[in-house]
Amino acid sequence: MILIISTCKEKLSELEFIEPLKKIAGICRVVSSADIDKKEIIKAEKIIISGTALKDFDYLNQDFEWLKKIDKPILGICAGMQVICKTFGGELKDAKNIGVKKTTVVKQNKLVSEDFNAYFLHTKKIVGGDFDVIAESGEFAAIIKHESKEIYGCIFHPEVLNPEIIANFVQK
Amino acid sequence: MKLGVLYSGGKDSTLALMKAKKYHEITCLISIISENKESFMFHTPNIEITKMQAEAMQLPVIAIATKGEKEKELGELKEAVLFAKKKYKIEGIVTGAVASTYQASRIQQICKNLDLWCFNPLWLKDQIELLNEIVDNKICAIIGGVFADALDKTFLGKKIDKKIIAKLSKIAATHHINPAGEGGEIETTVIDAPIFKKKIKIVKSEINYSNNSGIFLIKESKLVSK
User: Fold this and answer.
1) Are the beta carbons of A55 and B115 separated by less than 8 Å?
2) Which pLDDT tens digit goes with each residue over A79-106?
3) What domains can be seen in chain B, in order of their start residue?
4) Are B223 and B55 in contact (CB under 8 A)?
5) How far is CA A49 from CA A67, A161, B64, B145, in A?
6) Are A10 and B117 an interchain contact pair (Cβ–Cβ within 8 Å)?
7) What ipTM does this complex have?
């Protein structure tokens, strides 16, 4: 079973950021990042941490230290990638990026093999941390992977134009 | 949270409004009346009826006319949203965007610049699922325009119901159209919904159809008791 962790402060945002993920992920459960039950994490086979609205930053004040203690495949999308980055030694810097942009694969990986266009909707970029950049778009690290764990982050929203990235994470 | 709805008078913005109303207070509608029928951003047929729809919902509407020049109309939209922020103290915008990254990214940009929340409750919704939700939520939407050769004159003025959905679904399977009109193939006008205190009665209408596209023009209408 896939566990989707919603970083959305507002329920209304979940229609936009969670519902599309549910359709791609298949059988899944959804919990809020503000109130995660450890039992849900233990039960999950894989975890997806969602994105949220541009004006929502509540997730940055929440505890994601549990990420260090588990050994399961994790995919963070936008806000989800930011919390992963913060947890594993990276830094977040203000950098607005909205719209469809060309994205280049720079390292072989299991999520995507060819360059693609992606929909970006974020105001922070990630710098450093224990990660390899596997795709980039201009100045932005678009997809990252933890050096030794099955932990990925996409700063763009793959559910919009690249659902196969999420499907590959779920299936492979 | 106080929200303004970017309202075209069609099925999508009406459904988006109803979804947003479950969680937040809707304080105004914002309608852009584009003279450009090819507008990339704004739905066009019968857009003038939004004033009557707003009255039916007992909501104020900020209606702004634009010539519909591609990027200029975005500036005009920003002005309208800023006006709504000042006058109705809105903290965010609701849109009926479904799949257009062109439309969504530009509205997101405006909201970011004006420090407003942006909500798109129909985002990435399946087209047939969307049409069924319109009917299931008792939104009475009529087809006000068809802009694809697979959709003939007979669709104009028809109410979106299960029969029409089945027809659109069948055509979509063979003609590469978006059955809910996401690609601009269909435009709708809502004449009644549970949030309407009164419904719109069409008194006089006209069908103009040529070269594989046409509109059902509402020439005269009035609000009547439900």
Assistant:
1) yes
2) 999 999 999 999 999 999 999 999 999 9
3) 2-119 (3.40.50.620), 136-224 (3.90.1490.10)
4) yes
5) 11, 18, 40, 41
6) yes
7) 0.95
